[in-house]
């Protein structure tokens, strides 16, 4: 017997399936998509915190977020990654500008293509505005260095060295330059490497040849932890003082025990989290940020280090 219902059932099922696919496509079109392209690998102790912030914000808001970085400090490769990200037409692009000469042009191209850009960590507010970015989110590295130098000067110390594990990164160079300005004397820069053993050996070599050194400033985790090991190996812990930019559980433990003067906190978790929020607001509600967002510097000292060790172990600080 002829049954219209039997004939229509698969037709209706197909129509429903097509409607679901269409709804899914619409949902994907409505989903905010943000791409991060930085000079720091997601496995790096500092940059992993940035990625954690990005991931947490994306999960909370239902945003699609991607983190890209070259395998090493390779600005040519990073420029290519920015170009590829722009071609994929994200709703927002987040970049760090460790080398303005290499990265400025790709950022300008992104802005020209109608992709809104937020600059984090390195590059600074002036360059961000010059390139057409929405805002800079990070700390003034030079001024943070000045503040570090002033603190060391207040201790009555003047013989210092700035240890830079990634020479050529403009932000790290600014940290050393600011430190010398704040201290009020010329400060030699010890060129380092990312390998912790080699970094430790270079610091040992410097301290052996410059026995009058009173203070070591390291510009990040990659030189701070080898610096602590070098002082311990030479029996100079507590005799030659040390301070650093950036935090890690090891740095915070050393600070809480008085083996390190302080860690300068850029609060990089916010560098990952906040841009995702801003771009989601921009896409959904046309709410655009209108001012830079300073995340640091903050000095974590012996009195406060213990309170954030657990957060550092969780990848939040």
Task: Offer a quick outline of the entry.
53% of the residues lie in helices and 15% in strands. The chain is α/β, with parallel strands linked by helices.
Q: Any chance you could write out the topology, listing elements then pairs?
A:
Blueprint: H1 4-30, E1 33-37, H2 47-61, E2 64-68, H3 75-87, E3 92-95, H4 100-112, E4 117-120, H5 124-131, E5 135-138, H6 141-154, E6 160-164, H7 170-183, E7 189-191, H8 196-209, E8 215-218, H9 221-234, E9 241-245, H10 249-256, E10 263-265, H11 268-285, E11 293-294, E12 298-300, H12 302-305, H13 309-313
Parallel strand pairs: 1-2, 1-3, 3-4, 4-5, 5-11, 6-7, 6-8, 8-9, 9-10
Antiparallel strand pairs: 10-12
End-to-end separation: 72 Å
> Element order, helices and strands?
HEHEHEHEHEHEHEHEHEHEHEEHH
CATH class of the largest domain: Alpha Beta
> Which term fits the overall shape?
elongated
> Sheet with the most strands?
6 strands, parallel
Instruction: Name the CATH superfamily assignment of the largest domain.
Output: Response regulator
What's the number of extended β-strand segments?
12
């Amino acid at each position: 017997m002829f049954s219209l219902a039997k004939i229509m059932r698969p037709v209706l099922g197909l129509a429903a399936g097509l409607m679901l696919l269409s709804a899914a496509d619409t949902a994907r079109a409505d989903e905010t998509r943000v791409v991060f392209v930085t000079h720091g690998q997601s496995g790096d102790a500092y940059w992993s915190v940035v990625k954690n912030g990005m991931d947490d914000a994306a999960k909370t808001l239902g945003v699609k977020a991607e983190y890209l970085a070259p395998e090493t400090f390779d600005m040519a490769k990073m420029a290519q990654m920015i170009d590829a990200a722009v071609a994929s037409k994200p709703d927002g692009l987040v970049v760090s500008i460790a080398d303005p000469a290499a990265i400025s042009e790709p950022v300008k191209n992104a802005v020209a293509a109608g992709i809104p850009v937020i600059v984090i960590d390195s590059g600074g507010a002036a360059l961000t505005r010059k390139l057409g970015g929405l805002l800079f989110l990070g700390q003034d590295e030079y001024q943070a260095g000045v503040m570090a130098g002033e603190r060391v000067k207040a201790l009555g110390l003047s013989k210092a060295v700035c240890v830079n594990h990634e020479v050529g990164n403009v932000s790290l160079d600014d940290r050393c330059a600011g430190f010398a300005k704040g201290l009020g004397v010329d400060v030699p820069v010890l060129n380092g490497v990312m390998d912790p053993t080699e970094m430790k050996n270079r610091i040992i070599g410097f301290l052996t040849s410059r026995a009058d050194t009173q203070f070591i400033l390291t510009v990040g985790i990659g030189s701070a932890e080898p610096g602590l090991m070098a002082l311990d190996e030479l029996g100079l812990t507590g005799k030659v003082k040390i301070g650093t930019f950036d935090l890690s559980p090891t740095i915070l433990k050393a600070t809480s025990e008085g083996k390190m003067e302080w860690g300068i906190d850029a609060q990089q978790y916010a560098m990952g989290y906040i841009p995702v929020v801003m771009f989601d607001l921009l896409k959904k509600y046309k709410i655009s940020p209108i001012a830079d967002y300073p995340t640091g510097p903050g000095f974590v000292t012996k009195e406060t280090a213990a309170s954030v060790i657990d957060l550092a172990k969780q990848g939040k600080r």
